[in-house]
Amino acid sequence: MFLIVYFNWYLSMLIKSVLPASINDTDDVLFLKGLVESGGPELSEYEKFTCIIDRLGPSQIDEFRQILLPVLNENTLIGYGFKKPFGYPGDFNLINSIYDLHVNKDPKYMKWDIFFQNQPGAKAVRNRKEYFIDHLKKLTTNRNDNIKVLVLGSGPATDVYEFLDKNPGSKISFDLIDFDQHAIDFSKRKNQRFNGSVTYNRINVLRYKPYKIYDLIWSAGLFDYFKDKHFVFLIQKYINFLAEDGDYIISNFSTENPTRRLMEVLSDWFLNHRSKIDLLDIAKRACIEEKFVQIDTEPLGVNLFLKIRKSGN
């Protein structure tokens, strides 16, 4: 009996030593409060701020957020992600702010936004936009006929806007799918002068039934939220609407994402991160032959791209 009691006491002490109930380092608390008062971290303070977050145990997160409460609101990008005004993380407005390198000009919040925009995760989001645009340019270079593109989870459609804006007279037409009417409305306004080349469909991608064949099916920032079984299902579903020699490209945050902990602690932003092996396995489970599968990445390696080519050869 004594041994059992002693063991339980020892175990509780061990847990407390690994995951203390509060942020008991006075220096850390003063540092965090100082950041709030000064409008956010300077570049030289990024590492210390990140290290504090990395050391947090589950029981410390609420206290950490309480200290940062004055900036966890819609005046900052981290606060916007935390508040989720449209009910889900990574909404169209936040993604558009990342694309546009938005920074609040108010000194109380400015440095928080600069910190957010400098994180590898935010940079990778901008890089995946460029990856998509570059792929569209290659399509127009290699072909002279009309090109049909389906975008699953289109969000703000800033990428579509930038391509059409810089490539007037393009023969690419886009069908955009998103479940959020606010996102559809936003993208309609943004792409108003290109509406002859863009159609909008408010529906869940799990339920949408395409009525045409596409040369490219693209999805960025959507499949990260799906479980593997839904990922496999959506490959099998939409591959049937891909033209011969067409590409089905799906972006997914990598398990190597160094911003993962920041996203989860600061903004309650949880994704299904996947490795190259994970994506290859998913393609295999979707019955895609290995020779038709390729894994690409943006320059930082934070976003991976599962690229499936449909070929009749």
CATH class of the largest domain: Alpha Beta
- Low-pLDDT sequence parts: 1-21
Structural class: alpha/beta
The overall number of domains is: 2
Number of helices: 13
Kindly report the name of the CATH homologous superfamily of the largest domain: Vaccinia Virus protein VP39
What is the makeup of the main sheet? 7 strands, mixed
The dominant shape is: globular
Gyration radius, rounded = 22 Å
Strand share of the residues?
A: 15-25%
N-to-C span: 72 Å
**DSSP helix fraction:** 40-55%
Find the count of extended strands (DSSP E, 2+ residues). 7
**Major β-sheet strand ordering:** 3-2-1-4-5-7-6
Q: The CATH topology of the largest domain, please?
A: Rossmann fold
The CATH architecture of the largest domain is 3-Layer(aba) Sandwich
Order of helices and strands: HHHHHHHHEHEHEEHEHHEE
Can you summarize this structure?
The chain is an alpha/beta fold. The chain has two domains: 2-115, no CATH class; 121-310, 3-Layer(aba) Sandwich (Rossmann fold), CATH 3.40.50. It is built from 13 helices and seven strands.
Your description of this structure?
This protein has helices spanning 2-18, 26-38, 46-55, 61-67, 77-83, 92-99, 110-117, 120-142, 158-166, 181-190, 228-238, 260-267, 276-285; strands spanning 147-152, 172-178, 198-202, 214-219, 242-253, 293-297, 303-310. Mean pLDDT is 92; it is low at 1-21. The chain has a seven-stranded mixed β-sheet with strand order 3-2-1-4-5-7-6, with helices on both faces. Helix 8 crosses helix 9 (158-166). The protein has 13 helices and seven strands. It has two domains: 2-115, no CATH class; 121-310, Vaccinia Virus protein VP39 (Rossmann fold, 3-Layer(aba) Sandwich), CATH 3.40.50.150. It is an alpha/beta fold and 313 residues long. Helix 9 (158-166) links the parallel strand 1 and strand 2 (172-178).
